Amino acid sequence: MSTTPKRVATRAATAEPATELTLLDISRTCAVQTDFILELIEEGVLAPLAGSAPGSWRFTTVQTRQVTVAARLQRDLGVNPAGAALALQLLDELETLRAQLAASALDDDSGPSSTRSD
Length: 118
Fold this sequence. Notes:
With 118 residues, the protein is mainly α.
């Protein structure tokens, strides 16, 4: 199933410049075959930052985490790339919801205190 990429990689704000990796770089870094990365791209898990052909594609260091998690899901649980895409999407949603909950808790703590009269 070939779909448009659904995931958006975000870069953490750091003092060091973001490193862009080639297809071979990310393959070596994550210890996976390039074919596995190509399957992840077809499933919409990854979207190359630049380039129109595999030899010119560029990936972020953040995307290495996505590839690593997908590889572990496949290796440890037998999940196929489509299943890995779904799992990564759900993990992202969970992370977003946790951040919203934490932000909401901070808002509640810093808001005006209400007193009840019984």
